[in-house]
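FYI - complex with LJ64HWYM, inputs then prediction.
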Amino acid sequence: MAVYTEVADEELAAFVARYDIGAVLAVKGIAEGVENSNFLLHTERGFYILTLYEKRVREEDLPFFIGLMRHLAQRGITCPQPVLNREGEALGRLAGRPAAIVTFLDGMWVKRPTAGHCAGVGEALARLHLAGADFAMRRENALSLPAWRPLFMQADGRADTVSPGLAARTLSALDDLERAWPAGLPGGVIHADLFPDNVFFISGRLSGLIDFYFACTDAFAYDLAICLNAWCFEADGSFNLTKGQAMLTAYERVRRLDDAEVAALPILCRGAALRFMLTRLVDWLNVPPGALVKPKDPLEYDRKLSFHRRVASAAEYGLAR
Ligand SMILES: Nc1ncnc2c1ncn2[C@@H]1O[C@H](COP(=O)(O)OP(=O)(O)O)[C@@H](O)[C@H]1O
Ligand SMILES: N[C@@H](CCOP(=O)(O)O)C(=O)O
């Protein structure tokens, strides 16, 4: 469960009283997620999500995330909407953290995605990329290539305690990526964390996207690489070509990849795998005492990275050209 910050009942009641959502009837820490503290808030007006922003979210970036969710919703992307308090503000402070209340989205995330789910995500991702085109704000990706070596340094020489050889494998991948990371690919607003737990479905149909707190301005194809990593591998570590094909075909029905993006896909997939391996590794080695959180396995992404390092072209992900 990701609850890093506890909220006292009186403090919560005073915070909620600033909104037009009635009094608090119940509040529960949410048993998913690893980044922020999330609570399901039941008030006299219905259900909401209360988020307290934690370590990786910079307070100055919050207007970008809040503005983006509103912008995307206006363009037909179903995502949580920030609730404004009586002063017209979406952001406040609670228990010493920046905090916001957003609308509750119906739907469930899928633990075992099928090729059909992967197609749904491919299409939704491309729609998100197009919908973000006229969003006026920019936010650099704080977890892109320049951040990876410093993140690895945070593992503080302890990588090999997680798996023998992990430090050497990571450094070799980092060297390769720093030499060849592509520049100038088509880009704009990307979600940057569209994992299964951030995509809701109702009766097999995609019903909404959540968790825009890594969203930023970066290459569209990198976002697709993140999704290929997160959705198209099986529990035994194998890449499922049918799922990759379903995702890429559905994406391209909405937004066609250009030749440079197709050529870059293998290295983008390596970068995406390394990025999630590194944040997971740092979190695995630094669980805050008393936090209710289940850290995610960094080695899952170490194995995915090894797979991508053997990939020669986007055809191996299922892209037909
Ligand atoms: N707007 C929402 N509507 C419904 N459930 C939500 C909403 N936001 C978050 N959740 C629930 O909370 C969980 C954790 O949220 P998430 O934003 O992924 O956490 P984190 O900020 O730690 O990444 C989700 O998997 C989902 O179950
Ligand atoms: N998707 C990331 C973790 C990001 O946080 P979450 O709270 O959305 O799960 C990963 O799997 O490493």
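The chain is about 40% helix and 15% strand. Residues 2, 30, 32-36, 38, 49, 80, 102, 104-105, 109, 197-198, 210-211, 213 surround adenosine-5'-diphosphate (ligand 1) (CB under 6 Å).
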